[in-house]
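Hi all, long-time lurker, first post. I run a small reading group and we've been trying to get comfortable going from sequence to structure in the token notation. Rather than ask abstract questions, I figured I'd post a concrete chain and ask someone more experienced to write out its structure so we can walk through it together at our next meeting. Sequence below, copied exactly:
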Amino acid sequence: MLILVGLLLITVLTAATGYFVAQEFGYVAVDRGKLKQLADGGDRAASRALEVTARLSFMLSGAQLGITVTALLVGYVAEPFLGAGLADLLGLTGISSTVALPLSVALALVIATVVQMVLGELAPKNLAIARAESLARALSRSTLMYLKIAGPLITLFDRAAVRLLRRIGIEPIEELPSGATPQDLEQIIAESREEGHLDAEMSDLLDRGLDFRELTAGEAMVPRVDVHTVRADEPVSRIVELLDTGHSRFPVSGAEGVDDLIGVVGIADVLGVPPAQRATTRVDAVAVPPLLVPETLPLPTVLDRLRSGHRQLACVVDEYGGFAGVITLEDLAEELVGPIRDEDDPPDRAAARQEDGSWVVPARWRIDEVADSTGIELPEAPEYDTLSGLVMRELGRVPEVGDRLEIPVATDGDVPASGPRVLVEVLAVDRHVADSVRLRSTADVSGEGAA
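-- Answer (accepted) --
Happy to help. Here is the structure in token form:
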């Protein structure tokens, strides 16, 4: 009889422990966004579950209280009954009481521990993680009732723990954060890609969206050396001649030179001039005032400026007030979705993998673009944005065709003191900067060093 009573008590208390364990893990693992969708659709259980998650720290304290109390009761009430019953049963077999009593206590402890761990801890935990949403909804009513009844006791213990932590110089966090930082999202995307939940295209699109906020106008612009400008005193017919460049808008410079930006002119402005007057009408007569943005301006703000000003193009100026380049809505879109090609664009320059395993890449690519295309993560620094800038800094002079140098590979943005290195070879130079380079791991190069 004592054995049955002991087993019954262990079963009941283990079920209670399992309830609190499922409560603890279920509300931690549940997707609050999905609960909100269900609640907005009229699901009352989901609304109650959301109410619980709004006080997640308080609920966890309550669950811990329940787990602790039920576990103590197993040892204090259930095990003695089971132990006494087992001792009587062992006594019937002729085992002396001096041996039967400690043996029965040990057996009772083993039985209670196994039942508690398997049925009271592990099984409810795994169930809660696997079925978090349905379990959170199912337990919502009883959880709110329990928190209301045990609330004063939970609050008492919570305040005692908070005071203890503050005494030792730790400021506790009352509620767990439910949102995710950009860094959290990047980690989630990376893990989802590795586990096969996101394909390469989707993960790349999400990564670009997160990186967009960190880029500036200076990093995404078309640099000044690649921009076609027109003088204010030129005729608008000059704009028609420049259409073969593939561009439809051009910065207009004043009498003081290219840094004296007085406007922007587009093909639409030229079309408003009768053909017979285009050779005599000055560009500044049809140009509109330029939208100027500093090169340090974040891209989301650049986008807001373009949209609010109903513009397609902004002129980027550096810290000295000089003309640094232009940035268009298409440039911003390409930062989000990748290269956008049309019939007027010049032939695309892409990274090319060579038979020897090396990469030939455009040197004017940004460091992050090189990493995205080749997987080679080169060190970044504030004084340069592009691969050509890195080459010039490392050389300490204007590069020449055939220059070679070794550059350490970065790991998660850090450059280790010792680690893999990349041999960078300048293949072409344009306007005094590297135009095309070869990247090759030094492990693939035998007997070659930096020049």
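A couple of things your group might point at:
Confidence is low (pLDDT under 50) at residues 446-451.
The longest strand covers residues 257-266.
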